[in-house]
Every structure is written in structure tokens, then in C-alpha cells.
């Protein structure tokens, strides 16, 4: 399945691969996580990969740099929320969690029967941007609250939500399984979890160009692009978090830019720049120029543009409920595959 998007100088091509919360406030108000009652049930993550404070600052910057109606971000959010249209039930209380917050909140309108919406992010500036968008008249029919909090420490009461949506945000958590477990606990029985995260093939062109440039200019490589989950891990993550009826599928988006500089500017506007704790904070100028040159020579098109791959992994899971379909007990089958094979063989 292919789709194309045209905005400014960038061409987008998509290839399909395969019960109240503690901080529920009146619409337009804010609540800050100050440690009083906002405690994680799982404790802090043992392994620290990302600098969460730096990521918050990057999201503050992204709120000021964000492009209105970014075609790529909107396409991912719209594809994620399309799954709500496949559900017969409604989701009165929903949590929109970090990542592409503004696009998700804007495109959620009219979907899923949402009546109360909680928008949560580590960045106050990002929430302020979402609040201003709401005041522009985009959503006055849904009671909306804004919470400044961390995805790793959800300040949400157990069994209080019907829907949790996270679009392009959870891949920056240090403890992704723990964050997903907290999302499951916050859901009511038969509540729905929807998430989109960037996969391991994301920015593979930039990874290659940067590695070659560093080897040539510095004689070694350092982490410039954050590690991301692989597709094969997504199903395990849902199962480990305790979700039922898990579903995983993948989209690959090819985005074309005029130059590598335009790619970096877009990543900054999305809040998707490097936030590794063990990162080299200084990028050698010669290495940066060599990276751009190698990128152009290895992947540049005849029209002068360069491609960037974004692999998006979509995850769907439900909190367990007695009404959900369950697999049959092992050994309860009345017909064997051997009998079916023999019968089909006889007919042929």
C-alpha cells in the first residue's frame, strides 16, 4: 500500500509493511508533577539510557519550532487513530501521552466517543501549545485537562481510563516495559492501549553516513542516533506488559528533503534529536560536513533531494476482560490437521 504527501519542499511516501485520575483538572488548567502523590508503582528504572531532562528541554524547543500540520506526524497519528474506527465500543475517558501530542489531540476529534481527554507531557511549553490550539476552537466539545508529568511515572489512578494513546513518544523512555505496564494498570478492564514508536530501521541512511564520516575523520564511531526497538520485540513488549489480544504492524515512511540540514531541522521540530546519556556532546565540524557530503553521494536523488526512512511500529493491546475472545484449551480440538490434510489430498 502506497500513499504520497506533498508539503513545501518535502515529498512523503508511505510503504505499508505488514475512576478519576489524581491530576484531573478543569479544562485549560495545568498540574505539575511535584512528587506529592505522583509515585510510580514500579519504581525507577535500573538502566538509564536516555537523559530525560534533556528530552524535556528538546520538547520545549520543539513546541516553538513545530510546523503547523506536519504531514509526516499527521500521517502517523491519523493511521494510529484509525484503529478506533474498527472498534464498536466507545472510550469516554482517554489519556493522550507525550510524543506527537498536538497532532494526536487534534485528529482524535470525533473518534472513539471520547468525552474527557487528559493531555500529558513532560514539557510545559508543549502542553501550552496544545491548550492554545484548543482555544482556537479545534475542540470545545471534549472536556480537556493538561498534566505536566513523566511517561515513566504515570500520575494516574488504577482502572480509571478507557483509552491510552501514545504517538511517537514511548521510544524515549528508559523503561519501556514498565511504562507500558503502568498504562495497562491505568486502563479499566477492556480498556484499549494504542501506541506508535519509531523502529530500528529509522534514519538508517543517516546512521550509515555518520558512521562512515566518523571513521574517516575521527578513526572511530560514537553514538549519534539513539537505539530503537526492533519489530520482533514489539509483540513481546505487549505480552510482557500483560495486554491481551496484542497486535503489531509496521509502516515505513520515506521522506525526501532538500538537504541533510533540512532533515536535522525537521527532527528538532519533532523533538526527535539525540538524548542519550552517553553521548558525545560536541560534533566535529569536519565530521558534520563529511556526513552531509556522504549522505548526498550515497543516497541523493537526481532531483537533488535526499531520502530519510522512518520505520513506525504500531502496537495495540487490551486490558483483560471476561468478554474478550480467549484461545481454546490445549487439546480441545475435535479435528486434527492430519485428517484435514488427508481429506484435501483425496479431493485433489
Binned strand content = 15-25%
Q: How far do the termini sit from each other?
A: 34 Å
What is the element string, with H for helices and E for strands? EEEHHEHEHEEHEHHEHHEH
Helix content: 25-40%
Largest sheet: 10 strands, mixed
Q: Tell me the radius of gyration.
A: 22 Å
Reading side by side through the largest sheet, how are the strands ordered?
A: 1-2-9-10-8-7-4-5-6-3
Alpha plus pi helix count: 10
* Helix and strand composition category: alpha/beta
Would you identify the regions where 5 or more consecutive residues have pLDDT less than 50? 1-45
- Shape by Cα distribution: globular
The chain-level mean pLDDT equals 82
Question: How many beta strands in the DSSP annotation?
Answer: 10
Protein name: Methyltransferase
Keywords: Methyltransferase, Transferase
Organism: Melia azedarach
What is the topology?
Layout: E1 2-7, E2 10-17, E3 30-32, H1 52-65, H2 71-81, E4 93-99, H3 101-107, E5 116-121, H4 124-138, E6 143-148, E7 161-167, H5 176-186, E8 187-198, H6 204-218, H7 231-241, E9 244-257, H8 260-270, H9 285-299, E10 306-318, H10 337-347
Parallel strand pairs: 3-6, 4-5, 4-7, 5-6, 7-8
Antiparallel strand pairs: 1-2, 2-9, 8-10, 9-10
Helix pairs in contact: 1-4, 3-4, 5-7, 6-9
